[in-house]
């Protein structure tokens, strides 16, 4: 059984839901208030745990700090290239965070990540990695 250590970071950002291949009316019908011209924002909480011995805690903290700096107070649809085409759902934002952390720390780093946009609405993911 692995031992884990973790950190928590928070960031605020805006986004909107839009499927480019759909009409404006279909986007409005399907996404409701999440489809708006300017979007809406959330105060996200990212909880990240890492397997002990796989990565130094200082490296994990630095990677989380860099990720927070990239996302905080940004409009995801306009600033993050991946979200110009992909809908920035909580799940997709979590996958983006996972990819960025793996780029920074290595794909073999075991991680457990949870992203919350509201205390009752979030997503979780665990990478297997190698230890």
Strand content: 25-35%
Mean pLDDT level: 94
Radius of gyration from CA coordinates? 16 Å
Amount of helix: 25-40%
Q: Can you walk through the features of this model?
A:
This protein has a single domain, classed as Tetrahydropterin Synthase, Chain A. 36% of the residues lie in helices and 31% in strands. It has a 5-stranded mixed β-sheet. The termini are close together. The mean pLDDT is 94. It is built from 5 helices and 5 strands. The longest helix is centred in the last third of the chain and has 16 residues, at 90-105. By secondary structure, the chain is of the alpha+beta class. It is elongated. Helix 2 crosses helix 5.
Which characteristics define this entry?
131 residues; single chain; elongated; 5 strands; alpha+beta; Tetrahydropterin Synthase, Chain A; 36% helix
Any chance you could write out the topology, listing elements then pairs?
Layout: E1 4-15, H1 24-31, E2 40-51, H2 57-71, E3 74-75, H3 76-79, H4 82-85, H5 90-105, E4 111-118, E5 121-126
Parallel strand pairs: 1-3
Antiparallel strand pairs: 1-2, 2-4, 4-5
Write a brief structural summary.
With 131 residues, the protein is α+β, with helices and mostly antiparallel strands.
